[in-house]
Design goal:
Length: about 350
């Protein structure tokens, strides 16, 4: 039976980069693709960002590949109106995807594309492990004419399981591994629980892995001033959302970063970190490389096809070494030309 992958092109440049990714995947394996509307496209078609049918299809797949969601068309301050981002939150919650992995490793060919000096980013190789189904994004929300509130809450069990993911990832990365746990324990009660729980998991289960606690504002500063310091960054939901986008610029463009969202026994969700870029949608100039690298993460983490994942990653690297540059990287290559360059090396 062919491996079944649910594809969610989404909005903006999503359909363009999804089409490019499917060309790459078809070149290297036998897969069955099942496409569904998601996000803004689903709101237009069904009045909701995520239908029960799409969630059921994702639960029954071997993996889920997502391109991008959102756009000004669906922006609203009406708390009762559907928004594309609700699809992401609903899918993460519906599949139990509590761990988001975002590798950040600038490629030598793109050192000069980063807004930071080459000597500052050279040798950076870090992994952001972000808790994905708790915290302020999922807490109780209230809104009145005079104010609003969003509750941030975490349970010990939620912190323990994401801490184990981070320590396990650090353990596999190198012998001299380090987890930098990010919090705001000098102010927030949830962060004090986070710090105490991470410390306990470390002492009991991973004492051989180095652990440090870093306040979130200090972590933001160090990501720019000394990114090589970090190995694995462990964060709660909102802090990870912000810091991973900051870290993306170390690579020269947010168009270069893939991600994987994993849970216990559910199909994984794999998507580029960037948004839907509605300003360039339909122009054929979107950078598909983060989409290709997300497909590689799907091959490795979702389908256990390490050799195939490495082949895609190597093809992207060699295409960049050969001079491939999309507009966001300071070049002029179109989406189609970037896809062809990677296929030539696959």
């Amino acid at each position: 039976m062919a491996t079944r992958i649910v594809t969610l092109p989404g909005d903006g440049i999503g359909p363009e980069i999804m089409s490019a990714a499917l060309q790459v995947l078809r070149a290297g394996g036998e897969f069955e693709f099942d496409e569904h509307a998601f996000g803004g496209a689903s709101i237009d078609a069904h009045g909701t960002a995520l239908t029960d049918e799409v969630l059921a299809a994702c639960r029954g797949a071997d993996a889920v590949l997502l391109a991008a969601v959102g756009g000004p068309k669906w922006d609203t301050t009406d708390s009762d109106a559907p928004r594309p981002e609700q699809a992401l939150l609903g899918l993460r919650q519906g599949l139990g995807l509590y761990a988001n992995l975002r590798p950040v490793k600038p490629l030598p060919a793109l050192y000069d594309a980063s807004p930071l000096r080459r000597e500052r980013i050279e040798g950076t190789d870090l992994l952001v492990v972000r808790e994905l189904t708790g915290g302020i994004y999922f807490g109780e929300k209230t809104r009145t004419a005079d104010g609003a509130s969003d509750v941030c809450s975490y349970s010990v069990a939620e912190v323990e399981r994401i801490a184990r993911v981070a320590f396990g990832a650090a353990d596999r990365r190198s012998a001299s591994s380090r987890v930098s746990s990010v919090d705001k324990a000098n102010v927030l009660e949830t962060s004090r629980l986070w710090r105490e729980t991470v410390t306990r998991v470390h002492a009991r289960e991973f004492p051989h892995v180095e652990l440090e606690h870093v306040l979130v504002d200090n972590a933001a500063m160090q990501l720019v001033s000394s990114p090589r310091h970090f190995d694995v960054l462990l964060t709660e939901n909102m802090f990870g959302d912000i810091l991973s986008d900051e870290a993306a610029m170390l690579t020269g463009s947010i168009g270069m970063l893939p991600s994987a969202s994993l849970g216990g026994g559910s199909p994984g969700l794999f998507e580029p970190v960037h948004g839907s870029a509605p300003d360039i949608a339909g122009e054929g100039i979107a950078n598909p490389l983060a989409m290709f690298l997300s497909a590689a993460m799907m091959l490795r983490h979702g389908l256990l096809l390490d050799a195939e994942a490495a082949a895609v990653e190597s093809a992207v690297k060699r295409a960049l070494d050969g001079g491939l540059r999309t507009p966001d990287l300071g070049g002029a290559a179109s989406t189609a030309q970037a896809t062809e360059a990677v296929l030539d090396h696959l």
